[in-house]
Amino acid sequence: MSPNRIRIPAALAAVGMLTAVPVASASAVHPGSHHVLLISVDGLHQADLATYAAQHPHSALAGLVARGTEYTGARTPVPSDSFPGLIGQLTGGDPAATGIYYDATYNHRLLPAGTTSCAGVRPGAQVDLTEDLDRDRSRLDAGQGLTGLPGSVLGMTGNPATLLNPAALPVDPRSCRPVQPHEYLKVNTVFEVARQAGLRTAWSDKHPAYEILDGPSGTGVQDLFTPEINSTGPAVTGDWTTDNAATQQYDGYKAQAVLNEIDGYDHSRSRRVGTPAVFGLNFQSVSTAQKLPKSGGRPGGYLPGGVEPGPVLTSALDFVDGRIGAFVAELRRHHLDRDTTIILSAKHGQSPTDRAALTRVPDGKLLDGLNAAWRAGHPGAGDLVAASADDDAMLLWLTDRSPAATEFAKQYLLAQNGTGTDSTGAAKAFARSGLQTVYAGVDAARYFGVRPGDDRVPDLFGVTQYGVVYTGGTKKIAEHGGVAPDDRAVPLVVTGPGRESRTVAAPVTTTQIAPTILRLLGLQPQALQAVRQEGTRVLPFLG
After folding, report:
1. Residue range(s) defining the domain that contains residue 378
2. In this record, what's one Pfam family (predicted)?
3. Beta bridge mates, 439
């Protein structure tokens, strides 16, 4: 910490309830910025930022830290997945308010995708917010039909709802029609509030399903650029995430979209529309570099000890730093640095950072065993597990939600010992299914702060032992979704004109980004429904 930076003690982080307001309205506070650029570097830990800034004092990342307010105690929502992570940043809410627990979940009220005649159909449906919703998930344009890909990808539509396959969406039993991602979100977004105030909005992310950011109105993001990251990548076996150089190329398209927007164009640079008031993107390169055991013949992840980045991760950090530097330079070229605030954070971290702690556990075998045990004790019954999301946490939705069934699942899992693999692929024993703590039934609902029987809440939430990653293969050495510090301890830096340089050690959450954005733009934070429900406050020293 440099001597001119101020360290604010954690005792100053008191949280209180905000007064509810019924509608969005312009604030009496003068706006501190005309533009807010939000950058999510997925996978980035606070420790990564601190190390990089210290080792590269003239870097763009170090510059953001040196000129801004750095919150060293920031945490993401639980589960620490991409969807709850980003939606928390842009609504101010945790899953209890937003209804979004993961990118692929289950809803006990909706009807299965493809249902066209709803009478008599048993409720219960997968809710998929991944690449599986695309018209064509093999294409970078998600099936739009552009020629000349990947170079032509900036020609993708800014309305990715048109790229979704309606037959892959769950169905509302009341209307008997598919539920769009934005309709599934329970609360409004920063983008919707900005639009109500007549401000322009834009965002770039990794799947067309991110049209969820349009919010319940369906009109939040005017220019939403969503090239499909899980499409077939060039000159690699697999998609754009299977080689970090390919991921950097992919991220480069989104970075170019932001540069075009800074210049006053839409993401494709085909129309002059003015620089958005709220805009930004996510970077995937760091996340890929942390997950891959190897890429381009070099080791991924961290060096032994889990602190210093290895060569692939170093390359990814350098790439992200270069793109952020380009944003800063372009803002300065247009004199927009005088009224633009940059917020740097991450949807999630990644765990474990130390590959010596890694234990890969084949969750498929565990769930197959659970289903078999349930059927054996309940003749005529089907599988107990309706859906699961298992990365470095375990989320299960069950076909039978009774206390007896949820307790059965809990006790079965806690009794399972077996053999997985370590980071080299060698056998490594695990106990209790790799779980540290299991919340089931009422306890799971209580953990997330919702009523028992909520349609969306997992029926079982398992907190893993540190280092456990659920996978049947050896393609990754880290994951996210859990509650470990490696999953949740992300950077949060706010840099803008007239901001005093300081370090805030107080615990804060990334959900506080949403009301902070509105305050910076001179809008009412209480216009966000989740802010009113959860009492989410503006970040300290920015309100």
Report:
1. 359-470
2. Phosphodiest
3. 461
Check residue 142 and give its pLDDT: 98
- Same domain? For 23 and 91 the reply is yes
Model-wide pTM > 0.90: yes
Cα dist from 396 to 48, 95, 384, whole Å: 32, 15, 10
Tokens of 524: 């009412």
Can you tell me the mean pLDDT for 49-55?
98
Residue 20 has pLDDT above 50, yes or no: no
Asked if residue 510 lies in contact with residue 88, where contact means CB atoms within 8 angstroms, the answer is yes
The dihedrals phi and psi of 21, each to the nearest 5 degrees, come to: -130, 145
Quick one: 209 and 228 in the same domain?
yes
Q: Are 340 and 273 in contact (CB under 8 A)?
A: no
Q: Could you tell me how far CA 348 lies from the centroid of its own chain?
A: 6
Q: How does the average pLDDT of the chain come out, rounded?
A: 94
Last residue of a domain, one of 470, 501, 528: 470
Pair (332, 386) in one structural domain: no
Cβ contact 534:509 at 8 Å: no
Q: Quick check: is 147 in a domain? A: yes
Rounded to 10 deg, the angle between the 363-377 and 403-414 helix axes is 130
Per-residue pLDDT, 197: 98
Q: Which phi and psi angles does 470 have, rounded to 5°?
A: -85, 115
Q: Are residues 337 and 418 in the same domain?
A: no
Instruction: State yes or no: cis peptide before 31, omega within 30 of 0.
Output: no
For 120-196, where are the E strands, in sequence order?
Answer: 125-128, 171-172, 177-178
Contact criterion met (CB below 8 Å) for 96 and 84: no
Q: What angle do CA 531, 535, 537 make, to 5 degrees?
A: 80
In a domain, 411, yes or no: yes
Q: What's the maximum distance between 2 C-alpha atoms anywhere in the chain?
A: 71
Can you name the residues that pair with 205 across neighbouring β-strands? none
339 and 368 within one domain: no
- CATH code, 190: 3.40.720.10
Residue 514 lies in a domain: no
- Domain assignment of residue 169, yes or no: no
- pLDDT tens per residue, range 190-205: 999 999 999 999 999 9
